[in-house]
Amino acid sequence: MATINSVMGPLDTAELGFTLPHEHLVDSSAGIRVTYPELELRDKVLDMALESFNEAKAGGVDTVVEVSPLDLGRDVVLMREVSERTAVQFICCTGCWLDIPRSFWGRDKDFIADLWVREIEQGIDGTDIKAGVIKVATSDPISEQEELMLRASARTHLRTGVPISTHTPTSSRIGEEQVRILKEEGVEPHQIYVGHLSNTLDPDYHRELARLGVWLGWDINSPHGSADLPEWRERTDYLKDRLDEGLAPSMMLSHDWNVVLSRISSSGMSSREQNPDGYLWISRAVIPRLMESGVPAVVIDRMMVDNPRSYFEGARPTD
Ligand SMILES: [Zn+2]
């Protein structure tokens, strides 16, 4: 048992329940909310979020880990309002995605860590809402500034104990290199969740990450697949094979979903039409398919309840 930061304040890990470890509320950019509010339509977003998360709560979702940092338009006040009014628990993040602010470039890693530690220990955007996870993202290969963000996330983790969650690009094994750099900074593997693994269907990659002792983030964005990815049924069957091989103790499932995209032209992004179930698609489609193919309920609970709790408690994936 441990106490972690949720947007509503301290949260006992025993209360996490059914947890989606990689989701978004709004998908936007730093500063848009203030400078171009017409692109985020905050009132509309709030209505959509209340509808989505009331439905998610009724469908069994207890906790959402919201991994949008500053450069994805993080809005912790909105998150707190949604949490208050839907009873879905939100854990928000510090750290950085791929749109690294220029003001961070070339800084010392401890300088960046000071900023992020403040968001964990004091609060974000002048509020007392504190981050409970550290998000970090890289391309493949990892750029100089992305490596700086990785090392700053490591420093932040070592000072606070808050775990790290990574973004990886599609069709890439860069997660191994992310882990190597984080370990070089002194981070233990079980403090790392490597994300977007459903976007690289490479059994050797997934076995190797499990062997390294990190958490495997099966966060699936596009149910219908894309040019690079088969649609969800094929990917779910691939997941079933990995679970049969014994990867369940390391695995967590999520959607990488958001209520609204404030960018409309990015190719390959899923839409409401593609996924009418939103944050319940795993519950309504993926889990039933896994169970029909013989995955026992205890393994589902392991991935959706026990593993997220262990991750936040700083425990290791174990058999
Ligand atoms: Zn994401």
The helix-strand sequence is EEEEHHEHEHEHEHEHEHEEHH
**CATH level 3 topology:** TIM Barrel
- Give a short account of the largest sheet: 8 strands, parallel
What would you call the structural class? Answer: alpha/beta
List ligands, each type once: zinc ion
Spatial order of the strands forming the largest sheet: 3-5-6-7-8-9-10-11
Q: Total number of helical segments?
A: 10
Mean pLDDT: 94
What does the overall shape look like? Answer: globular
Examine the secondary-structure arrangement and name the CATH architecture.
Alpha-Beta Barrel
Number of domains: 1
Q: How much is the radius of gyration in Å? A: 18 Å
- Roughly how many Å apart are the termini? 19 Å
Assign the CATH class: Alpha Beta
Strand content: 15-25%
- CATH homologous superfamily title: Metal-dependent hydrolases
Structure in words:
The protein is α/β, with parallel strands linked by helices. The protein has helices at residues 32-35, 42-58, 76-86, 109-121, 144-160, 174-184, 203-212, 232-244, 281-292, 297-313, and strands at residues 3-6, 9-12, 19-23, 26-27, 63-66, 89-96, 133-137, 164-167, 192-194, 215-219, 251-254, 260-261. Helix 4 (109-121) links the parallel strand 6 (89-96) and strand 7. It is globular and about 50 Å long. It starts with a strand and ends in a 6-residue tail after the last helix. The model has no long low-confidence stretch (mean pLDDT 94). Zinc ion binds at residues 22, 24, 67, 256.
